[in-house]
Amino acid sequence: MRPVFVQFRCTPGKTYEVADAIYDREVVSELYSTSGEYDLLAKVYVPEDQDVGHYLSERLFDIPDISRTLTTMTFRAF
């Protein structure tokens, strides 16, 4: 499994609904409310045999009231 971080910008006033929908999908290991450009930050473990883009698109990105996402890939440093 490789960890990927996804930030979500939500439609104003819909952050709690989006967060609930994300948790309902049972895909994220951690989910935080954040300040700044994005409203939520999620840590997702993507199976090694899965394409990250397809995995996230099929499981998270169709949730209503997500207006933008930013995905940060991680790499083994050592």
UniProtKB/TrEMBL annotation:
InterPro entries noted in UniProt: Dimeric_a/b-barrel, Tscrpt_reg_AsnC/Lrp_C
Limits of the Transcription regulator AsnC/Lrp ligand binding domain: 6-76
Xref: Pfam families: AsnC_trans_reg (PF01037)
Name of protein: Lrp/AsnC family transcriptional regulator
Record organism: Paracoccus solventivorans
UniProt lineage: Bacteria, Pseudomonadati, Pseudomonadota, Alphaproteobacteria, Rhodobacterales
